[in-house]
Design brief:
360 residues
Length: 360
């Protein structure tokens, strides 16, 4: 789950900044959108049972001195608590939680990216995290607690396929999951001349029974990004950032069942009423804007974005849920609806955005 920007970071691409615009350093609200400026690169998020808190993955820089983490944010009090950092766990892997070959927790370089939450068939709550620091893998955590009192315990992992830089993950109750490869790790993409027009990756399915990945046919694309699954696992919905498209694919056959144009899409989430919410950086996204955002050391990025709704059956756009011209936060990577509010994260910056939605 990364926008193209995040991919650039994870693939360690070489850029020479052409300019550096000023970051947003104040934390002032706009009419229906209020920034909460206590985060570090809150790239993806999920709602926790009971809707009293959300869990946020903070994107790091794949280095021990600047690692990512997992954060619980309490909605009423707006208290932020870090519940996991790499190198802090002495847990051992548990059977039935990932690949048996993965036996040790992440290192201090833990760098969380796309995340997803699922209630397993055994009733336990499982968080899946794409992470790049120390190893390229899907990390598996058990989420324990309730209300606003939550904690996570590492239970296992699934190492990524060879040479695959993963982006996002979509979980199933039986322990299986789907994930996107945005690009190869080597050779790294060179985006200095613009976005690629060739195929850079695809989606994978991973089976707990076989402890193995397989490519999902019909998903070859240019910079595959956010991914979501239908509740029964029959279909996936996959963004391709460099193609500005969202497609629906039948997993068993690879048959494409629909496609809709969304400008530079990033992460996907399900709304309470069954719509897909897509974070979009728009058709006019500029690499120089990305470079400017990567270079900021405080405040927030100014890249305009919108959160759009898509009908997952007809694969048609239903309209814009929220639009930002760049303030009070830009570069939105995920829109998560909880009740009549929308919570928005970003790949770069010190804040999330809390948006009050109007009545239906």
């Amino acid at each position: 789950m990364l926008t193209r920007p995040l991919l650039l970071l994870s693939c360690a691409l070489v850029w020479t900044p052409a300019f550096a615009s000023e970051p947003i350093t104040d934390c002032e609200p706009e009419p229906n959108a209020r920034p909460i400026c206590t985060f570090t690169n809150p790239e993806d998020m999920v709602s926790l049972p009971g809707d009293q808190a959300i869990l946020i993955g903070e994107y790091g820089a794949s280095a021990e001195e600047h690692s990512g983490g997992l954060v619980v944010f309490e909605l009423d009090s707006e208290v932020r608590r870090t519940v996991y950092r790499g190198g802090e766990s002495e847990a051992t892997a548990e059977a039935g939680w990932g690949d048996p070959s993965c036996t040790t927790p992440p290192s201090k370089a833990f760098n969380s990216h796309g995340i997803d939450l699922v209630r397993r068939d055994d009733g336990r709550l499982q968080l899946l995290v794409v992470q790049h620091g120390g190893r390229e893998a899907i990390e598996l955590f058990e989420v324990l607690g309730g209300g606003t009192d939550w904690r996570v315990e590492w239970r296992g992992c699934v190492p990524a396929p060879a040479n695959a830089s993963l982006n996002d993950v979509a979980a199933l109750p039986n322990g299986d999951f789907y994930t996107t490869q945005m690009a190869p790790i080597e050779p790294p993409l060179d985006l200095s001349k613009g976005m690629p027009t060739h195929v850079t990756g695809h989606a994978f399915a991973w089976s707990q029974a076989d402890a193995a990945f397989r490519k999902i046919e019909g998903t070859d694309g240019s910079m595959p990004n956010g991914i979501a699954t239908s509740p029964d696992g029959r279909y996936i919905y996959m963004n391709a950032s460099a193609e500005s498209s969202l497609r629906k694919v039948e997993v068993a056959t690879g048959r494409e069942l629909g496609r809709v144009s969304v400008g530079t899409p990033d992460n996907l989430s399900w709304s309470p009423d069954g719509r897909l919410l897509v974070a979009s950086l728009g058709d006019d996204f500029d690499a120089e804007d990305f470079v400017s955002c990567v270079s900021i050391t405080h405040g927030a990025c100014r890249i305009p974005f919108e959160i759009v709704a898509v009908d997952p059956d007809s694969m048609t756009l239903l309209g814009t849920v929220y639009e930002s011209k760049g303030t009070p936060m830009g570069a939105g990577t995920v829109g998560l609806q909880v009740g009549r509010e929308l919570f928005i994260g970003s790949f770069k910056g010190d804040r999330i955005l809390r948006v009050a939605l109007g009545e239906d």
